[in-house]
Amino acid sequence: MHVDIQSLSKRYANGVLACDAVSLQLQPGEVHAILGENGAGKSSLMKMLYGLVEPDSGSIVVQGQPRRFDSPLDAMAAGIGLVPQHLQLLPSLTVAENLVLGAEPVRGPLFDARRARAAASQAAAAHGLAIDVDAAVGTLSAGQQQRVAILKALHRGARLLLLDEPTALLAPAEAEALFEHLRTLVAGGASVVLISHKMAEVQQAADRYTVLRAGRVVGGGRAAGLSAEHLATLMMGRPLAPLRSTRVDARGRPPLLAVRELTLLRPGARPDLAALSLDVAGGEILGIAGVEGNGQQPLAEVLGGLREASSGSLQLAGRTLAGLSVRQRRQAGLGSVSEDRLHDGIAPALSVAENAVALDYNRPPQSRRGVLDVAHIARRARDWVARYGVVCRDERQATGALSGGNMQKVVLARELEAAPRCLVASQPTRGVDIGAARALRAELLALRDRGAAVLLFSADLDELLALADRIAVLFEGRIVGHFAADSVAPRMLGRYMTGSLQDRLAQARLDAPFTAPFTAMEAP
Amino acid sequence: MNGPMTRALLAVGLALAVAFALMCAISAEPVQALRQLLTGALPEPHWSADTGWTLRRLTRFGAVIEKTITLTLLGLAVMFGFRARQFSIGADGQFFLSALAAVAVSVWLPPLGGLELLLAGAAAVAVGFVWGLLPGLLKAEFDANEIVTTLMLNVVAVQAFRYIVTHGFNDPAAGFLVTPTVPAGATLAAIVPRTQISAFVLAVPLATLAAAWLLRRTTLGYEIRVVGDAPAFARQAGLPVKRAVALSMALGGAFAGLAGLHASNALLHRLPADLQPGIGFEGLVVALLARNQPAAVPVAALLYAFLEAGAQAMERSTDVSREMVLVIQALIVLFVVAERLWPAGWVRRKAAI
Prior knowledge:
The complex is a heterodimer. By secondary structure, chain A is of the alpha/beta class. Chain A contains 17 helices and 26 strands. In chain A, helix 14 runs parallel beside helix 15 (434-449). By secondary structure, chain B is an all-alpha fold. In chain B, helix 1 (4-26) packs antiparallel against helix 2 (30-39).
């Protein structure tokens, strides 16, 4: 579908100029990537295209006709469909029910389940997306759920699909499958807008690209032959110095964190963790790769003391952790950066200073006999804000009002200043733009080089390969692969992450052998 | 121009507008009714040749201040639990038992030259604290829903109060079921003539400051605020979540205890067996109106007491019925509490007009 975006501008009531005369043309049959850091205006542009935000000026011309969208219904009527990053599907309803939601077939006053099923099967067949229309959406994998969301948009007549960071939660193989589907779709004349900040994806999936920075179009062109450096420079406005790190070979050193035969049972289901053993030595980073939901969160929670293991042992520098409270574990030198910072990484309504003091507010000089030294707490927070480059109005600002990257800097400042001997970091740079992500990664490497053990969970394989010294792959609560990070390719990791390859004897102990291709077995 | 104060005033204004529309529909004298609602609680300056200027209706205004004191303390009581995200509504029970405890201590102690008042206060605060700690511990240790436990403990407290006053702790000479009277030495004398306003009015600023200080300047208050804002984060950071939950409800109980002391030793001096329950829920409304900000609690309490007295004046002197008065009161609370549900842009547009 031909969509001509002409000089769209949007200034929000708070004065932020989110889009400044953005123009771009979308051709039928193309995948168009839109890149930019957080706050560059990508989401605002999408929201204007989807009728969620009204532009101040400029116009949207669809197939030669100028259009005005007052609501998503208008946008849908014009053939524009949005697949948001956090899919808005109802997990307890079936695929067919989700698909027709909003335009349900009815017989009299009642929902016509049979026609809904038929419509869903037909849509799936027509668009070449294989899916079980009777499955409850909650039981599907992230990739399949996304397929449902795409199908839903197509079912509502979308000829232009807006995809907001569609691969954020997908395994590499699922992402590749998604890109293939997009290819078939555009071959049929549809258009796709792909929002991303992963460069590899753009090179792989897009025909053309447009880069936004501070609300303006700063570059664009054909995606073929594009270099990552060029893109990064466009997005940030300056060249990004590559992160230099030397690999550490810690094998043979004593472990600082030692996990043995850790099992976490779940009543009536596959265990969350099954006889998992791993070591992290001081001064090394062990990366944990895996598709989300394969035991990463239970493992982090058991380490942190939020859940008690069913069996197995945990030791930090020779001290048994089992039975210790969260606070005792932290005092023993365990730090943690949690996965969902808005949920359990910060208290959003509290100030930056109050968030920064969460680990040691109960010790002098932060407090004495139960009374806080507010001046000291504020002074120290100001110091951290300056040193970690947190962009905020001042240390009294509510932490929830900061951008994701700055929130994460507050979290990292707090955790690193506690000088942990072992840091468990889950998705530390998720949703953080590339400049801030680079700073956060450099902090993790510096912590490692100061001798701490770092256990890094990340869904971003590029991040794991850049930071980790060893990588263990988690699949269904077990370690199914153990690699030296400098001798494994992302594609290979991907096959272990989806379980199509498994090394049944793999353990991530320091004295355990690395998985060699010939010891791996194809899964039954 | 879009601060919380502006928005609250706007909400009150809108609520009054709707209330006025209702009055127009049901009353023959809506303007008079509105005037009573807004000014009925105020004392009236009166001039006569004999006495010069005097203030009339002081008793009624005194009732507003007395109610403000009670509601400030109960509002602070409810606020503490709310700040830890505990929907604890046990202020009623805490109020009843601590008032009874204050009377009992006052009656049983020999005259100690004012010290008995302090001891009665200590008893009231201790009883409130314990009656708040109980559901707090049940929540912290057994995850018992605090709404259910505090509601049930209210019933236990009120019925226990009635039982005790009916079957033992009463004054047979009174002619009706009522506790013995607090001896004069343990009471707080009124400082404004024709009212019951006592030195206890100082409790309004003092208790508010104490509550704000507890929340903002102590480690316990910090824990309560973190637990209330982000419980998962509090656990992750190793904060003593259970202790903060239990103590937030117990601290609330202590403030409700002060309200009990005020009722027994300053207002009533003796407690009838059929003392009406429900005042704790008015404290809950005050805490909601104040958005759980300690400094706003006295303001909300005054607003509530003022409108209540005005509504009663309206009932007495116009044709607006008691039921309608309650409807209008509820509407005002509804508007102010629901104000945060208004879309921000809508409020801004309204405010610009």
